[in-house]
Amino acid sequence: MLLSNLTSLNRLSWLRPFQSFLNSIIKLPTTRWILFNNGKHAIIRSEKDSKPTFSLAYLTTQDVEHLLGPKPYFGQAKELGDLIPDTTPTHDEHIPTESIRHRGPRVVFLGLHEIGERDATSLPSSDFTDPETAIQKLEGIPYFSMDISSIGLTDEGLHSFLGNTTLGRDGNNLIWSDPKPLSPWLDAFTADVFASARSMVDWNQRNKV
What we know:
Helix content: 10-25%
Radius of gyration: 18 Å
Distance between the termini: 12 Å
Number of helices: 6
Order of helices and strands: HEEEEHEHEHHEH
Shape: globular
Largest sheet: 7 strands, mixed
Mean pLDDT: 85
Strand content: 15-25%
């Protein structure tokens, strides 16, 4: 997993060491994914006034979970299925291995898109270092991203996957595309999220261990 530098999303940096937090938010029905395949990304192609229009495809965890590999998704211990337990880090201590993921495609947690006004009990405060409390206070949309080219799906498999997503079953035409057709259709928020997702996923692809 790699950290992002988003300005539109709350990175929740103080919660990233906790596998319990990441394993919880990845399962939320509100969680959305930006998916890549060898540099191309999943988009929705529509028609307006006989001209094609494009939008970014936000997929659900239910759509992508069969591509993620074995559970646990984060905090993967040496033995398959074993979980590295959370511990509470001391001041200025960083324990990145507690949220480690070394089975399945590399996953980037982009951050949380906060919804509504903040108040004294809102999640985005470093005071909420307890993962369980943080999950209870979470208000917004968590965003993840990954490139699935390492899975080795055929062209037919990639096409079938898009058609079987929630968006695909709802009648949307999902395709794999390079960024050029999508760029003119992006609003500021989506452009920011997409740019960071693309940058982080590309870095992961070029810096494999």
